[in-house]
Design brief:
The complex is a heterodimer of chains A (232) and B (116).
Chain A: E1 12-18, H1 25-35, E2 38-44, H2 50-56, E3 60-64, H3 70-83, E4 88-91, H4 101-112, E5 117-121, H5 132-149, E6 161-164, H6 165-170, H7 180-190, E7 195-199, H8 206-211, H9 217-230
Chain B: H1 3-24, H2 30-48, H3 50-59, H4 65-115
Helix pairs in contact in B: 1-2, 2-3, 3-4
The chains are: A alpha/beta (232), B mainly alpha (116).
């Protein structure tokens, strides 16, 4: 943890929503904790030792007593980070899909391009080996989003993001489950935040594929998203 | 009067009075109370005068009174499901708010201990 932060170096909080991730979380947390001010793990009602494992690896743990979904966990983490004086909030998936070194790229992009939000994209280059079905679903989702919200990003469903404090304060995730990714993009547009996409690598392992969403979940996600838009 | 009418009409009268009593004691909002009372009256009217129901059905382009009742019931059921869905969603979001509050409170206590 960097304690000698000067006025110019922003306080970076990395928030990681986690549900039963005790096996993969510790190395991830200790690596991030070595580089950034705070690592905040939101234990979303896990039944395993996720909270304890994360704490031992150096994270602050916020514990949801019952599972409320990834969107809910992110919002909890963001609120806590803002209360504790974060200047930048980074969201990071627990399942090992993201590389810790990509966080630095997002932070650089925020600075260099004077952006409010930086979002990782696995489709800006060819480094990510995205399974064909997943690629098809994600590309359909991007088109769907272009249609519903008019925002064109190459990969809007990437869990790796960096938000400046001012942006994080404006964004309020109400969709508790998985549709929050589209909701965040909507709010970026609504609040006219400057967004920049950064090429990152998403690694698909057997673990991440087992823990991740089934491609069929896209229908449920689209339903949640549209209902929220149409009915408050 | 048919046996069916002898059974259902008093039953509807009871439902009507229960609804009216609940509304009077403000256990039921004005809107829902009106909706329920209208439903009981409409049911009673169509049971007491099935011919009138057939006339209404014909006007709407539906052949039989029974079909009209069926269609309306299905319509109301869907409307009901939808209302329940919206309420459930609101409830879920309240639960999230509470769970979040507890999580943040607990972490604040923990990190306060840390500093001591």
């Amino acid at each position: 943890m960097t304690t000698n932060a000067t006025a110019t170096s922003p306080r970076v909080f990395v928030i990681i929503p986690a549900f039963n991730e005790e096996s993969v979380l510790p190395p991830l947390v200790s690596e991030l904790a070595g580089r950034y001010d705070r690592v905040v793990v939101i234990d979303d009602g896990s039944g395993d030792g996720t909270a304890e494992a994360a704490r031992r690896a150096g994270a602050v743990v916020l514990r949801h007593l019952i599972n409320r979904g990834q969107g809910a966990a992110l919002q909890t983490g963001i609120e806590w980070a803002l209360r504790k004086g974060a200047d930048v909030v980074v969201t990071f998936d627990a399942d090992g899909q993201h590389r810790t070194e990509d966080v630095g790229r997002l932070l650089d992009a925020l600075d260099e391009q004077h952006a409010d939000v930086a979002i990782g994209s696995r489709f800006l280059d060819l480094r990510s080996d995205v399974p064909p079905l997943r690629r098809a679903v994600l590309l359909a989702a991007i088109r769907f989003m272009r249609l519903t919200s008019g925002v064109s990003l190459t990969d809007a469903h990437n869990g790796l993001r960096a938000l400046r404090r001012e942006a994080a304060e404006k964004i309020r995730i109400r969709l508790d489950r998985m549709a929050h990714a589209s909701e965040i993009v909507d709010q970026i547009r609504e609040h006219r935040l400057r967004v920049v996409e950064v090429p990152v690598v998403v690694r698909y392992s057997d673990y991440s594929r087992r823990k991740g969403q089934s491609s069929l979940a896209a229908f449920r996600i689209a339903f949640d998203y549209l209902m929220q838009r149409w009915f408050r | 009067m048919t046996t069916f009418q002898l059974i259902t009409l008093p039953l509807l009268a009871v439902l009507l009075s229960i609804t009216a009593a609940a509304a009077a004691r403000r256990r039921l909002g004005r809107g829902p109370a009106t909706a329920w009372i209208l439903l009981w009256i409409a049911s009673a009217a169509s049971i007491a005068h099935p011919d009138a129901l057939v006339i209404v059905a014909r006007i709407l382009g539906i052949g039989r009174g029974a079909d009209l009742v069926l269609y309306l019931s299905i319509l109301f059921m869907f409307a009901g499901f939808f209302a329940v869905y919206l309420r459930l969603r609101r409830l879920e979001s309240h639960i999230t708010t509470i769970v979040r509050h507890l999580a943040i409170d607990e972490a604040d206590t923990d990190t306060a201990d840390e500093r001591q």
